[in-house]
């Protein structure tokens, strides 16, 4: 549904996007992940037709978006960063305006009623945009993107600035309307991408550093032999115990957290060719300490990003 190959975009001497290629299949939710300035927003603006790439190609639902931009844009719903809108317009007036300028087909009233209901805007549809909270403005921007039932959704930092409750509500909305659609969700929040996406594209300095299913990216980080241990051993004794266990090594330095009763959560890595967690537990007990918990630490998307970003020159 979304195909981009060898995209390049320059702003004067700055190459904001450099040779980017990506593919997002039908019905998938793909996270577009990277720090601020990685080139995510510039890429989304090229995909939606706001910016024209200096090189490369784009296809939306099989349509060459550079040769027939209007046909490609009719298949796209776009939520820009910040969900811009006119503060002096009422919600339903803004949606009607967006309907007209996007050239959507069908019954305008029926479509506005549908997206208002889908996005939970019924109680604010007559309110002025300028009086809405950030969370409701995001919902209005999402409703505008859903007008005309587009098959592709491009969302740029959709939860930026929302409080935790609003973020949870937005995630619920996203899971509901994403069914049957292809979604590319830009974010610099790793937890956000892990919570809602099937796959991810990792960006750094305008380049793609990795792409694939979330689980595959985690596994590629090589952290599957890391274990978490909750013990009451002090720092110096912990280092001695780990050093005495074959194949074990310290991970993450000193204690990750300390409970009120003096128990520490620490991490240790085991070599692939040796070392057993049971041996670590036995060594802790033999050294006069206690073990409250010992479990395999599942690698995170943060591990994956650090892993891949570390292999890319800055």
Describe it.
With 314 residues, the protein is an alpha/beta fold. It folds into two domains: 2-220, P-loop containing nucleotide triphosphate hydrolases (Rossmann fold, 3-Layer(aba) Sandwich); 226-298, 2-Layer Sandwich (Alpha-Beta Plaits). It is built from eleven helices and 15 strands. It has helices at residues 40-48, 69-73, 91-102, 108-118, 134-146, 164-178, 190-196, 214-220, 235-244, 277-286, 301-310; strands at residues 2-11, 14-24, 29-33, 55-60, 63-64, 76-79, 152-156, 182-187, 199-204, 207-213, 226-231, 248-251, 257-258, 264-270, 291-296. Strands 6-7-8-3-9-10 form a six-stranded mixed β-sheet, with helices on both faces. Strands 11, 12, 13, 14 and 15 form a five-stranded antiparallel β-sheet that branches. Strand 13 and strand 14 (264-270) form a beta hairpin. Helix 4 (108-118) packs across helix 5 and helix 8 (214-220) packs across helix 11 (301-310). The longest helix is centred in the middle third of the chain and has 15 residues, at 164-178.
CATH fold annotation of the largest domain = Rossmann fold
- The name of the CATH architecture of the largest domain is 3-Layer(aba) Sandwich
Main beta-sheet strand count, sense and barrel state: 6 strands, mixed
Write the element-wise H/E pattern from the N-terminal end onward: EEEHEEHEHHHEHEHEEHEHEEEHEH
Separate helix tally? 11
Could you tell me the mean pLDDT? 87
Number of structural domains: 2
| Backbone shape | elongated
Radius of gyration equals 24 Å
Low-confidence stretches: none
CATH superfamily of the largest domain: P-loop containing nucleotide triphosphate hydrolases
- State the strand order across the main sheet: 6-7-8-3-9-10
